[in-house]
Amino acid sequence: MKHIAALQDLVTAASLDFEPTSAELDAIDVEMPVIRAEVELLDAQIMMLDRPVSEVDARRIRRARRRVMAARRDLTNRTITVPTGGAA
Fold first, then answer.
1. What's the CA gap between 43 and 11, in Å, rounded?
2. What is the mean pLDDT of the chain?
3. DSSP label at 16?
4. What is the pTM of this model?
5. Angle at which helices 55-76 and 22-47 cross, to 10°
6. Which residue among 10, 29, 32, 62 is least packed, with the fewest CB closer than 10 Å?
7. What is the Cα gyration radius of the chain?
8. How far apart are CA 87 and CA 1, in angstroms?
9. Distance between CA atoms of 55 and 15, rounded to whole angstroms?
10. What is the separation of C-alpha 54 from the centre of its chain, rounded to a whole number of angstroms?
11. Are 64 and 19 within 8 A, CB to CB?
């Protein structure tokens, strides 16, 4: 019987004990409107778990969903300048 050994380094707690880089923090800042909108939607959905949904609750959910969609749209439509490799 052959033993299969991992060919990668072990992942330990020491290897994961780093602060996020500035690029990672910038990426989080860019995505923060989407994160806030998703949290707001989740909060609205959690409030509906233990009670019947009223018309006001349904509107709250719809508004939260629209905010998530708008935040995702805005994030997607951000222009990113990518240098082209071809000669002009």
1. 35
2. 84
3. G
4. 0.67
5. 160
6. 10
7. 22
8. 58
9. 50
10. 29
11. no
